Each structure stands twice: as C-alpha cells, then as structure tokens.
Amino acid sequence: MRTFIQILFVVLTGFVTACSRDEAPKAPKTSVTAPPVTIFPAKTIITMNPDLPTAHAIAIRGDKIIGVGETAGLIKTYPDAKIDKAFADKTITPGLIDPHIHMILGAMMYTKPMAPPWDIETPAGTVKGLGNRADFLAALRKINAAHPGDRPLIIYGYHNLVHGPLDRHVLDAITTKRPLIIWHYSGHDFYLNSRALNMAGVDASWAKKFKGVPLDRDGQPTGRVYEDAVFDFLKKTGPEFLSPSSITKGFADQLDMFARSGVTSVAEMGYGLFGLKLEASFYKNLLPAKPTTKIYLVP
C-alpha cells in the first residue's frame, strides 16, 4: 500500500485580477443576455496585487470578477449595476487554496469520534486536544460509553508522542464487548483491541507476511497494524471506514467547512488511493453540480 497520507492544510492565496488604483476598468462589450453586474462596496479589499494592494469595491458579473477599485469609479463604469452593501463594513480577502487534501480520507476521519493530541478544527467545530495520557484514556472510555452496543467503534486522533504507548491490553481495559479500533493521528497506524483483531482476522501469522504487524513477547500481535499490512486489514474492515452514509456526510461536511473558511480551490493529491473506480463513483455521486470549492484531482 502507498501509505495513508497525513492531511496537511497549507493555505495560499489567489483570485484577484489587476487593475489601477484610481482609474476604473473600461466596461467590456457584452451581449444582451449577459448576467447583471453587482458591485460590492467593502471596508477593505485585499487584492494581492502589488500595483493595487487594497481597494474598496469589487464588481461581479455572474461568477466572474470584472473589476476592482473604488466604488464611485465602478459605478461610473457600470451605471446599471446593483449595489450590494452586505460587505460594506467587512474586509474581503482572496480565496484560499489548499494544495494538498484527501477528500475521501478526510470524509472517513471527520465522521469518526475524535480524541486528538491538540485542538482540531472540524466541520462540526473545534475538538479540544488531549495533552496527556490520562485525559486521552478517559476520553476513550467516555466515547465508548456514548456509543452503547457491540458494533465496532473507531476513534481517530491518537498520537504516541503525546499519549504514550498503546496495545491490545490497554484497549481491552477500555472494552472487551466490542471491536475497538484507534486510528493514529498520522492516518498510517491502527491500534486494535482483542475483539478488533479477531474481527479483522489479524493473528501471529500476519507477522510472517507483513512488517506492519509486530508481535509481543508472547508471540501474539500487539494490536498495532500499519503500513504494508493496512490494505489486507482494510479488506476485512473496509465497510466500517467507507460506508456510503459516512462518506456522503463527510463530503458534504468538508465542502461546507471549505466554504465557511474561505477555501475556494483544493487539490486532491492522492486520487485513486482507494481505487480509481470507487473514488470516481464517489465524486460523481456526491459532488454538487457547482461546488463552492473547485477540486483538482491528482492521481
């Protein structure tokens, strides 16, 4: 398996076209069917254009920026434009670009209960970080209690450098009544209690085939499954991670989070990680016709 890839959000900027500071652009010739123009005055507009660092109004036709400058100049250029003062007391910035995301992996993670080492922004809001082992283990017990029954439970966010070592014995102390899977913050490692090991069919024989199934001093799996063993692990547990309902919700939640955060473009840098046919079906069926964020698929 090409490893699960750690989600890294790096924010860049881009969207605004150049124009002069005081002279409004000449109105282009348009057909009678052209969409109407709307001018948005603002307290400040940050353009990222060194020739015009800031402005106070922006003109939009349809979904295109056609002018940036001062309100009076744009009104002179587009006398029939509608004036929308929704942002009159606000600052408008360029749309943000995230050049490295994973939509399906994110959909999987964001729909799981979380016990992260530090604060994480999610579609549902901020999940507070757990900065020590005691708080982390207490959170696992609380999440387990909040999900009664014997269905498999997957919790995302564990970090060994903050929360200390984890093995099947520690997780069996949380519960032996259900399969419990702890997903490492990096996305690369999984930690299973005894019920989860049985569910996935992971036993000592896996150590002969995979580096990613270490054994303890008794010759039994420690509970950790990682790297080269993950694909076989997911063959048995995939429905718990890739259920249509969770992926559907995860897609919608991420698009909403992008829109609320001002992210207008993202690049999916692992398209096909779970199979091109499967992922193509997700994008075809789950993305709206006109998503608020453009998604570039990079195989």
From TrEMBL:
Residues 89-272 form the Amidohydrolase domain. Signal peptide: none annotated. One of its GO terms (molecular function) is hydrolase activity, acting on carbon-nitrogen (but not peptide) bonds. PROSITE patterns: PROKAR_LIPOPROTEIN (PS51257). InterPro entries: Amidohydro_3, Metal-dep_hydrolase_composite, Metal_Hydrolase. PANTHER family: IMIDAZOLONEPROPIONASE, PROTEIN LONG AFTER FAR-RED 3. This is Amidohydrolase 3 domain-containing protein. It comes from Hellea balneolensis.
